[in-house]
Amino acid sequence: MINQDVNILAIESSCDETAAAVVRNGREVLSNVIYSQIDLHTIYGGVVPEIASRKHIEKINPVIEAALSEAKMTLDDISAIAVTYGPGLVGALLVGVSAAKAIAWARDIPLVGVHHIEGHICANYIENKELEPPFLCLVASGGHSHLVLVKDYGDYEILGRTHDDAAGEAFDKVARAIGLGYPGGPKIDKEAKNGNEDAIPFPKAKVHGSEFDFSFSGVKSAVLNYLNGCQMKGIEYNRADVAASFQKAVTEVLTEHTINAAKTLGIRNVAIAGGVASNSSLRARMTKACEDNGFEFYHPSPLLCTDNAAMIGCAGYYDYIRGVRSGYDLNGIPGLRLGER
Ligand code: KG4
Ligand code: ZN
């Protein structure tokens, strides 16, 4: 009997996670192996691209082997190889892309290049089997803050974007300023639980004139000014209050813009994605706002919000069944735009 299942071997290496996964028929994750380099970069206060590339080279083959073995498969069972080819750090992307091309060529398996942000959005399909386009998705990660209308599989319209820092980047910078270190998001999230989010009225991260766009550099500067002010006056600031108040300023705006866009467009299905989507305050605000407005709210579990290869396998599946194929000239594209090939 011919096996009708589509098994995608997915590879992700765009930043500081070396990851591989096997995904069956788009939404069933058979394995999801993530080697996180976070500990290596923590001492430098952020990701060092050269170190990330070197570690990816060391880890990529063992991670791919582990993903196949956990899925109890060999390359003979794989229908296509999906790999993140942008956006991201070019040296890091190249490791995954080269590994994927080598396996595809050696075993004559179709190759599908996947957009990293498309992967983040598709993470929502994995645990929400009923979710289908159209829906609205807030993508907030370390490098991106986008409000995206998912019109269909592979068909995206960007409604809003950040004019400066990405939301995750602001979390990372503020965390560094208050001595929490890298990665800032999860550390601020934890610290904020002991603080009062109404203690310090940081300005809302808004952009004048463009309803769905974001700007986070203002709120970041406001936090830095507040810290300087405290230092000059010889006052000790309350770290938990700063973390909680900053987190509120960011997550309130992310929520408001998303809900406003859903109302304007008449879309009732709302999702979040990307590393910042694992933030507890954002998830709580979005849950309440969606409930209040009668919207259906979708979110991946935290492990599928941050970088992983299962989401790339899911996005790669929908690309593959639409006939998308990449050649052996596939390259890492650091500034790849959503919807571009
Ligand atoms: O999606 P991701 O893993 O990588 C990129 O594609 O950028 O996102 C990483 C970002 C980092 O900036 C990190 O601080 C942030 O997501 N992040 C969080 C949380 N967990 C990760 N931000 C806020 N709260 C969290 N719990
Ligand atoms: Zn990411």
Describe this structure in words.
44% of the residues lie in helices and 19% in strands. It has helices spanning 38-42, 49-70, 90-107, 116-127, 167-177, 184-192, 217-233, 239-265, 280-293, 302-305, 310-321; strands at 7-12, 17-24, 28-36, 80-86, 111-115, 135-140, 145-152, 155-161, 269-273, 296-298. The strands form two sheets. Strands 3-2-1-4-5 form a five-stranded mixed beta sheet, sandwiched between helices. Strands 8-7-6-9-10 form a five-stranded mixed beta sheet, sandwiched between helices. The longest helix has 27 residues, at 239-265. 5'-O-[(R)-(carboxyoxy)(hydroxy)phosphoryl]adenosine binds at residues 15, 141-143, 168-169, 171-172, 183-186, 189, 274-276, 278-279, 306-307.
Topology:
Blueprint: E1 7-12, E2 17-24, E3 28-36, H1 38-42, H2 49-70, E4 80-86, H3 90-107, E5 111-115, H4 116-127, E6 135-140, E7 145-152, E8 155-161, H5 167-177, H6 184-192, H7 217-233, H8 239-265, E9 269-273, H9 280-293, E10 296-298, H10 302-305, H11 310-321
Parallel strand pairs: 1-4, 4-5, 6-9, 9-10
Antiparallel strand pairs: 1-2, 2-3, 6-7, 7-8
The structure holds 5'-O-[(R)-(carboxyoxy)(hydroxy)phosphoryl]adenosine and zinc ion.
Zinc ion binds next to helix 4.
